[in-house]
Amino acid sequence: MKPLVEMIDIEKHFGGIHAVNGVSLTLYPGEVVGVLGHNGAGKSCLMRMLSGAMKPSKGRISVSGKEAEFASPQDARTFGIETIYQTLALADHLDAPANLFLGRELKTRWGNLDDKRMLSEAQKVLARLNPNFRNLGEAVSRLSGGQRQVIAIARALYFNAKILIMDEPTAALGPSESAMVADLIRQLRDEGIGIFLVSHDMHDVFDLCDRVVVMNRGHQVGAHRIDEVTKDDILSLIIKGELPVDWTPRNAGQVQ
């Protein structure tokens, strides 16, 4: 299977500081890859380069086999890459359709805002994710955290995202809303969308991810299938930058 994303020998320098140092990773269709590390480990910087918010100092990125250079997030979007930030980047005083099309509004043939079409399109894409979503006319500040997350995901899907970068998608959500977002992630994976999941929540990582990449001080210190490692293994990589000395794959006894 051809990778959706290949990041090869990526580096990012800020003067003498190497925030990301020679990192390579891949993402395949219908796969969730966890990107973990302490604050300052380089994971967010790495994802910003994929999202177009930063330019690499060295290395190359290819999307679906095509070399890609991003000068801005708009460039990344042309390759089907969308980012769902922890803050969700929603305008609290606007309703769901207005947020879904914020900055990319649909217009009538006369150049006016096509509110009727935006409402209709918003209903369709939100129903795809949550058939029970009914509060389209309310300001998003009045919606639950889970409903706000649905709007952010719907915005990415409407504009044909093939690759999602999700930054702490269940942070500050209660158990039921976290479960709903987890179900959405599984649904997106089943539809063939590739997801980079940036998270500190080990439960989410082991529940949702197929593979995990761990960053430590700008270096990639581990890349494993989730069935190879335990939570203690991941914590060792995050904290010490290496696996326990007596490490063996968790699935070593299984028939491949």
Q: Which characteristics define this entry?
A:
256 residues; single chain; 32% helix; Rossmann fold
How would you concisely characterize the structure shown here?
The protein is α/β, with parallel strands linked by helices.
Would you give an account of this structure?
- By secondary structure, the chain is of the alpha/beta class.
- The model has no long low-confidence stretch (mean pLDDT 91).
- It has a single domain, classed as P-loop containing nucleotide triphosphate hydrolases (Rossmann fold), CATH 3.40.50.300.
- It is globular, with a radius of gyration of 19 Å.
- The chain has 8 helices and 10 strands.
- The strands form 2 sheets. A 6-stranded mixed β-sheet has the order 6-7-8-3-9-10, with helices on both faces.
Helix and strand run: EEEHEEHEHHHEHEHEEH
CATH-assigned fold name: Rossmann fold
Helix content estimate: 25-40%
Terminal CA distance? 19 Å
Secondary-structure-based class equals: alpha/beta
Strand order of the largest sheet: 6-7-8-3-9-10
Mean pLDDT: 91
Please work out how many helical segments DSSP would assign: 8
| Major beta sheet summary | 6 strands, mixed
- CATH architecture term: 3-Layer(aba) Sandwich
Q: CATH homologous superfamily?
A: P-loop containing nucleotide triphosphate hydrolases
How many E strands?
10
